[in-house]
């Protein structure tokens, strides 16, 4: 059904339909049938362009009309869609995609659409294999960003002009028999197509380098597989590795029967002494606490008896230091400390209240001044009597106005 429709469709219709498929494949992933349909449409476009003779090697970009500029992108679209096909021989798909991209770049070079610096870098790459690819990629990336921003600017300007045209058409009455006149934007459209071709060239160069690397890797892998005897040798290598792994596990299980693991240290204090070098691991220590199990609950809950279950139950160990005594033991220790303190305090109080302590107590400085207390007391009483007889301000009565 698609082939019948393609025979009846015109070149602009074929191009527009294939362009929409390419846009959908670029924005998101599409199924393989849609990709094949797009490739068929683009091949039909290429065939019709050749029959119509739209382009000639004797022409340049200035000789091509604005309406025909968009058909230059047919080869670029075909190369990109061909690369996305995932069926069949991948190397042949890569070669077909590279052929279309190279044909597109060569045609643009004939039409003087390839930038001069890109041509210079290509010539240097053929003459010198150690060309600085990083500088070339940076320059190409800058051209790509400039082209994208310019296309966005043209699109926004066209949308603003369209809105203003529609607004003026609504506000201005149209006379009978008068046709709507469209703005002559041929120059702007031509500029947009030329920028689109420049952007496609930047992407073509990058995609071509990526496809070359992928083809080289796939060719190297295929050559290596052919040298190693393809799948048979690979399967024998896998079987040999599996046998080695099984033998290693079997020997490890046999050795585990006769190897007794070291008894774990369950006392936090002794473990800290070992870590800090104050004790040796082999030193005898009386472990008062039983090993605590932190493994799976299915093993911990049923009190494992075998060595295997005990080791499995001790897989998950705490990352912090465990307590060296229980809460009851800590309480008894604290009570013992408190009783010792109370006994020592009681002994000190008894010594302080004894007669021997009071007799041998050194005299206080206040007791030496008791003899002068009577004289000081008489002097204070005399001073109080004088203040009663001479109140404050009594000698200044004559200086007051009402005195």
Automatic annotation (TrEMBL):
GO terms for cellular component: cytosol. It comes from the Eukaryota. Pfam families: TAP42. GO terms for molecular function: protein phosphatase 2A binding. Residues 176-185, 366-375 have a biased composition (Acidic residues). Residues 157-185, 349-403 are annotated as: Disordered. Coiled coil: none annotated. GO terms for biological process: regulation of dephosphorylation; regulation of signal transduction; TOR signaling. InterPro entries: TAP42/TAP46-like_sf, TAP46-like. Gene3D superfamilies: TAP42-like family. Residues 376-391 have a biased composition (Basic and acidic residues). Involved in the regulation of the TOR signaling pathway. Seems to act as a regulator of PP2A catalytic activity. Belongs to the IGBP1/TAP42 family. This is PP2A regulatory subunit TAP46. It comes from Erythranthe guttata.
């Amino acid at each position: 059904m698609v082939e019948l429709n393609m025979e009846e469709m015109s070149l602009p219709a074929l191009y527009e339909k294939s362009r929409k498929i390419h846009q959908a494949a670029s924005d998101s992933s599409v199924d393989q049938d849609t990709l094949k349909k797009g490739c068929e449409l683009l091949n039909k476009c290429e065939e019709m362009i050749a029959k119509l003779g739209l382009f000639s090697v004797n022409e340049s970009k200035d000789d091509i009309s604005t309406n025909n500029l968009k058909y230059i992108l047919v080869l670029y679209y075909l190369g990109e869609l061909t690369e996305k096909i995932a069926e069949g021989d991948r190397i042949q798909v890569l070669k077909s995609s590279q052929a279309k991209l190279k044909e597109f770049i060569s045609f643009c070079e004939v039409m003087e659409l390839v930038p001069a610096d890109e041509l210079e870098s290509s010539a240097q790459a053929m003459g010198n294999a150690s060309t600085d690819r990083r500088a070339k990629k940076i320059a190409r990336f800058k051209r790509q960003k400039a082209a994208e921003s310019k296309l966005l600017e043209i699109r926004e300007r066209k949308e603003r002009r369209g809105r203003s045209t529609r607004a003026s058409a609504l506000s201005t009455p149209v006379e009978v028999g008068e046709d709507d006149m469209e703005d002559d934007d041929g120059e702007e459209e031509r500029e947009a197509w030329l920028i689109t071709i420049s952007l496609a060239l930047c992407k073509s160069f990058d995609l071509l380098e990526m496809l070359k690397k992928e083809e080289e890797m796939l060719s190297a892998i295929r050559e290596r597989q052919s040298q190693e005897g393809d799948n048979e040798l690979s399967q024998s290598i896998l079987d040999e590795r599996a046998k080695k792994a099984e033998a290693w596990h079997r020997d490890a299980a046999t050795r585990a029967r006769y190897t007794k693991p070291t008894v774990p240290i369950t006392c936090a204090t002794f473990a800290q002494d070992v870590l800090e070098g104050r004790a040796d691991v082999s030193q005898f220590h009386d472990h008062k606490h039983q090993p605590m199990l932190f493994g799976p609950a299915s093993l911990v809950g049923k009190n494992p008896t075998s060595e295997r279950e005990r080791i499995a139950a001790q897989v998950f160990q705490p990352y912090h230091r465990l307590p060296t005594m229980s809460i009851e033991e800590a309480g008894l220790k604290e009570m013992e400390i408190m009783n010792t303190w109370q006994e020592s305090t009681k002994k000190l109080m008894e010594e302080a209240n004894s007669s021997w302590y009071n007799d041998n107590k050194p005299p206080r400085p206040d007791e030496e001044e008791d003899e002068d207390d009577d004289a000081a007391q008489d002097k204070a009483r005399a001073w109080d009597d004088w203040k009663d007889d001479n109140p404050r301000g009594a000698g200044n009565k004559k200086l007051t106005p009402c005195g």
